[in-house]
Amino acid sequence: MVQYNFKKMTAVPTGKDFIDIILSRTQRQTPTVVHKGYAISRLRQFYMRKVKYTQQTFMRSSQPSSTSSPLGRHPSDHYKLALGQINTARNLISKVAKDYVKLLKFGDSLYRCKSLKVAALGRMCTIMKRISPSLAYLEQVRQHMARLPSIDPNTRTILICGYPNVGKSSFINKITRADVDVQPYAFTTKSLFVGHTDYKYLRYQVIDTPGILDRPFEDRNIIEMCSITALAHLRAAVLFFLDVSGSCGYSVAQQAALFHSIKSLFMNKPLIIEDMKLVTEMKAEAAKTVVAQGGEASGEAVLLTMSTLTEDGVIAVKNAACERLLNQRVEIKMKSKKINDCLNRFHVAMPKPRDNKERPPCIPQAVLEARAKETQQKEKRKLERDLEDENGGAGVYSASLRKHYILADEEWKEDIMPEILDGHNVYDFVDADILQRLEELEREEGLRLEAEAEAEDDALDMDARDLSPEEREALAEIKKKKAMLIQEHRIKKSTAESRPTVPRKFDRYRSFTTKRMGRELSTLGMDPSAPSTGERSQARGDDEAVNMDVDQPNKKLRLRSRSRSRPPGEVVPGEGLRDSAQKVKAIKLAKNSVKLRNKSARRGEADRVIPNMKPKHLFSGKRSIGKTSRR
Amino acid sequence: MRIEKCWFCSSSIYPGHGIQFVRNDAKIFRFCRSKCHKNFKMKRNPRKVKWTKAYRRVHGKDMTQDSTFELERKRNRPERYDRNVAENTLKAIKKIDKVRVAREARHHAQRMKGNKVSEMKAAVKELEQSIHMVKAPIALKEDPSLTLPKLKVKVVQPAQAEDQMEE
């Protein structure tokens, strides 16, 4: 079913817009970059493409769907003219494009190809500019068409016609949701209006037409032509309205005359004549007039009376019209050939009753009993929720989830199985035949133990000589001594910086005594008195032997026989020092200057060796307070 | 509730301890304490870190393959509860533990077996070399055995007293 939906037509652009559209599309949809270094064939192709594309776009755009002819409601000359002009423009543009493409084939430089393209597009645009008035007109047409109501020509339609001001628009307002202008002056309705109404679950179109005057056909104006055309072309039920009261300004006779003149248009259409605006006393009189005048009307015409003001008979009229239309359509369908195909396809079979015996459905007794029991059970069954409520509510009672466990033995339901044992997961050991495997394991273990015992017996004796207990003692002693040494050394090392380096002769604790030495020597197994009784440690008895008399101590000889070191402060003549005090001071100063150097283990003034160029403690680590921006 | 194994050091993680890390490929790493976690973040290989079980296994310091390990296996299919089976399992766990401990001890002994000889050799050598620390060379010359020197105690003879007595 083709829908003439004019609202959905695309808008026709103005001339200028049209040019813009086409040119911008060309620019967007074709490649844009070209350099003069390209091969000449490529340049030509590039510009030819642009020209052709513009032409094609114009062809496409100037073929809108609106050229399909709508219901001829407009004077077709102007319309046809406009369409014709567009057609000529198309041909001209095609010609232009063809010519310029031919020229482009022989373009020898970028500049020449470009100018050819410019010329081609320019000419096409001029042509387009020339048809802009036609485009404007077509746009107007489209707008007008869009405003037309969408009428489906094939569905059930009811057409309302009659003289102006008889009450057609009021009627349509009453039966549909349409809101048509109703005014006291004639020709309020200037075009068709469509409303929809329902009857027996089917949708009906109701079309309101402008009023028709009784005039010869040629004198009719555009508005009347609307109605006439509608009447002529639409297959619909026709409701002809008569105003009996004469308040429309025309007598019944005039209206009847109109009726006769357009009778021809009512061929094959169910016709209902309404007597409108009925006020009771006039009824009988009016009916007579109509019948007298319209007596020759076909027997199919039905006469009804109604009044929209009092809403008297409106529904009846609608129903009657719809019914008649429906019947007519059904009849036509039945007569047509198509229906036979449908009819042949289905057949409703209704079995004829054999006799008057009642045969209700048969339900076996067991099923009935089961059903009864089920309903009973449903009421009596105890839910977990009830149980919970009984035992103290949600916070107090916790449902026993183990109730419905399916186990081999019912007593096991409340068993608690440990999950962890001795640092193992019990579930990891669970096995149906664990006993068997354990047995195997133990057997294995037993075997291994036996093998071990045998191996021990056969174990070869250790080659090494075992140490005797005394030797072991000695070894222990050695180890102890070594440990002591290490310990002492560690202490010394840790205190090295803060410990003063004092020569042994000033030992404060007097730890170096002969007795101690003797003790140590004896533990070592030496004779303790041996060192002190050695030859060297004995004082030489020379002086005693020579000088027997004590009265004359020979100091000078002593001086010579025993070499003695000079006292530290003794000034030797020739040294350059004044007196012993000065010498002592000088010695002190000298020692002071050397002390620091000695402490840092430098061999002399010139020793600038740095044992560790990048000590780790200076080049790494964070400060506990402060920044580490200087290293 | 399960006792898991720490990915780094392979120790057992009891419930409520440690951290679990899930990587984007859905692999789960469990750590028993922050030490293991931090080591993992430092991308350290547990096979190279001395104190982990992985290292010990790889370097043969601990038992690797044993039938006792096969008895303990993570089973994904839950079994229906059976009291007898549960009882047997619990008893078996203890026995298996005993066996396993015994085997580990054996393994350790086996590993340490060669020590005795080398130790003895080292001891002898040390004794010979360092005997001078407890025994003077003179004493050694007199008594060449590698033992502590005998302490000589001077005994004062009461001979004069006798003489006096005689007189």
UniProtKB/TrEMBL annotation, chain A:
It is found in: Nucleus, Nucleolus. GO terms for molecular function: GTP binding. Residues 555-565, 614-631 have a biased composition (Basic residues). Keywords: GTP-binding, Nucleotide-binding, Nucleus, Ribosome biogenesis. Its main location: nucleus. GO terms for biological process: ribosome biogenesis. Residues 156-326 form the OBG-type G domain. Residues 517-581, 596-631 are annotated as: Disordered. One of its GO terms (cellular component) is nucleolus. Transmembrane segments: none annotated. Involved in the biogenesis of the 60S ribosomal subunit. Belongs to the TRAFAC class OBG-HflX-like GTPase superfamily. OBG GTPase family. NOG subfamily. PANTHER family: NUCLEOLAR GTP-BINDING PROTEIN 1. This is Nucleolar GTP-binding protein 1. It comes from Spirodela intermedia (Intermediate duckweed).
TrEMBL record, chain B:
One of its GO terms (molecular function) is structural constituent of ribosome. Its main location: nucleus. Transmembrane segments: none annotated. Coiled coil: none annotated. It is found in: Nucleus. GO terms for cellular component: nucleolus. Keywords: Nucleus, Ribosome biogenesis. The keyword Nucleus applies. Residues 6-44 form the TRASH domain. GO terms for biological process: ribosomal large subunit biogenesis. Belongs to the eukaryotic ribosomal protein eL24 family. This is TRASH domain-containing protein.
